[in-house]
Design a protein that fits this description.
Elements: H1 2-32, H2 39-42, E1 43-53, E2 56-58, H3 60-71, E3 74-87, E4 90-101, E5 107-118, E6 124-131, H4 133-139, H5 147-152
Parallel strand pairs: 1-6
Antiparallel strand pairs: 1-2, 3-4, 4-5, 5-6
């Protein structure tokens, strides 16, 4: 009985580590190292990223463009997965991305969460993202500091 439990626990931990390892490798290779041509190795054929922009799903090609544009704004990118929860084919992660603004040479921190479904081959079949882009653009100097409280007052920026 104990051997069966140990084997089941080992298989469960291996499956969890594999999904987390895929996500860590994606952020390391693509975001940190800039190997945009590797996106397809992490996404299943027809895989999409959702939630990055309202009402717009990103294909791997779209994601490549989004990452390239962001890599033109920040340098020295480091990513960390702070917390992971897994259930079946799904993995939920709390992420932190740190870098330096290329324009101002000041630190930039982007936090977010995602939920990803992995297919049988271990690739991301779909992913739902939610990142704090408001503070990200504040840190890049594209929005006023503390813009969120300003917006709560009814302020309009045009």
């Amino acid at each position: 009985m104990q051997v069966g439990y140990a084997r089941c626990k080992e298989n469960w931990m291996t499956a969890m580590t594999d999904k987390r390892a895929v996500l860590e490798a994606f952020y390391r290779e693509v975001w940190q190292e800039g190997h945009l041509d590797r996106i397809g190795t992490y996404f299943a054929l027809g895989g999409e990223a959702r939630g990055l922009l309202p009402d717009l799903d990103f294909t791997p090609d779209d994601l490549r463009d989004l990452i390239a544009v962001n890599r033109e704004r920040i340098d020295q990118i480091e990513t960390r997965i702070l917390h992971v929860v897994e259930q079946g084919d799904w993995l939920s992660a709390l992420l932190e991305m740190r870098g330096v603004s290329i324009d101002t040479e000041t630190p930039v921190v982007l936090t977010g969460q995602l939920m990803a479904r992995f297919d049988a081959t271990g690739k991301i079949a779909e992913v739902y993202n939610s990142f704090d882009f408001l503070s990200y653009f504040e840190q890049l100097g594209q929005l006023p500091r503390n813009v969120f409280p300003l917006l709560l007052t009814g302020a309009v920026f045009r």
